[in-house]
Amino acid sequence: MDLETRDLLDRRRRLMGPNVSTFYDDPVHIVRGQGVWLWDRAGTRYLDMYNNVAHVGHCHPAVVQAIATQAATLNTHTRYPHGLVLDLIENLAGRLSHGIGQAILTCTGSEANDVAIRMAQAATGKMGLIATDNTYHGNTSAVSQLNARRPPIGGPARHIRLVPAPDRLAPVGGSREGQALAFAAHIARAVADLEDNGSGFAGLILCPAFCNEGLTVLDPGFLAQAIAVVRRAGGLVIADEVQPGFGRLGSAFWGHDWIGIAPDIVTMGKPMGNGHPVACAMAKPDIMAAFRDVFPYFNTFGGNPVSAAAALAVLRVIDAEGLQENAARMGARLLKGLRSLRHPAIADARGIGLFLGLELVDAGGAPDGALAARVVNRMRATGVLAGVMGRANHIVKLRPPMVISEAEVDLALDRLAQALAAER
Ligand SMILES: Cc1ncc(COP(=O)(O)O)c(C=O)c1O
Fold it and tell me: Which residues line ligand 1 (CB under 6 A)?
């Protein structure tokens, strides 16, 4: 690590407090980005195989221009009517089905989920929420109650039930074939529990592709039984599209369309503004009306014209550059490459579009987080930035900007193969 990076880390500790995490043993001090590439201070370039926020590529000129033009013209909030935010909602509504067409714009995915939860509670008059026990939906006080990895201060809330997350190595119910049914049975038990303890059941929130769980489900149709349980109990379905949305999965624009469910509320964030903080919760009109009746919601920065311009530019770039199709093609190439890797630690290679994982285990077949960490650190040393995911952080996560090319996919595969070979 060079002296300047060491100094930055010292200042971070002094100014931001302890435990502010960085990626990699030798953190990268990035100063510039373009497309799928990042440059550090010394001019070394890195292939970004991780960042789903820079969805249409780092510093895409059309998005930069849209932000700059609108920032130089006007920036206010939604108490003044402005056409851009309406253009954005119309554009998003045109990509959604199931009667979902109204939106509340926020600045983060956490806020969007916070709103979504309150929408479900307002519409049902019940409090109870169900999520998986290996997920992350955000950091507000209400949403962080859904985070099983760090239980909330004071212990788990009465109105929250976390059901076992689908898993490839240790499937819920003991077998991959029986997993969907077993998952649905856990939801049914959680609903009964919430009704018994007086919370009632407001809804199920999940990422349709189970991204934070480690991309553990690859079968469209998996959720049919679970959703039937939710419907029978009168609950709502919230699809958290913060990770799978905006075409990343290749074959569908949204995760819920890919897996084949009809949500009542959809939330989105991360890729929506290509790095500009814009997110949103969208719902059916009756649910929105129930929410607006109870909460006079206002968000100073949510839905400002600059954010709307950024998000509209992202949508236009996705269409103009055929990025959903690129995700399908490049994802297939990457997956084929992952499946051709040979190493005793590889338990599974999987992917949906441009979201892929390589699951690593030790000699006893147990998740090997230490190995995954070594692999991504080795990749970083050879100029490719990847991440980890899964219950034990044992799955190498590949989730690059959607503009990646064949040559860049091949480079990433080559560096991953090298990193694995060094671990024999
Ligand atoms: C599935 C999911 N939902 C919501 C969030 C929260 O988004 P934000 O960090 O913008 O608040 C995240 C962040 O990682 C996420 O992965």
Answer: 108-110, 113, 136-139, 207, 212, 240, 242-243, 269-270, 279
- Model confidence, pTM: 0.97
How is domain 61-320 classified at the CATH fold level? Aspartate Aminotransferase; domain 2 (3.40.640)
| Arithmetic mean of pLDDT, 95-110 | 97
Mean pLDDT of 313-330: 98
CA of 137 to the centre of ligand 1 (A): 5
Atom of ligand 1 nearest to the CA of 113: 4
Every domain of the chain and the residues it spans? 3-56+322-421, 61-320
Distance 418 CA to ligand 1 centre (A): 32
Which residue's alpha carbon is at the smallest distance from atom 13 of ligand 1? 138
Task: Report whether CATH 3.30.2130.10 matches the domain 3-56+322-421.
Answer: no
Cβ-count burial 331-363 (b if 16+ within 10 Å, e if not): bebbbebbeeeebebbbbbbbbbbbbbbbbbee
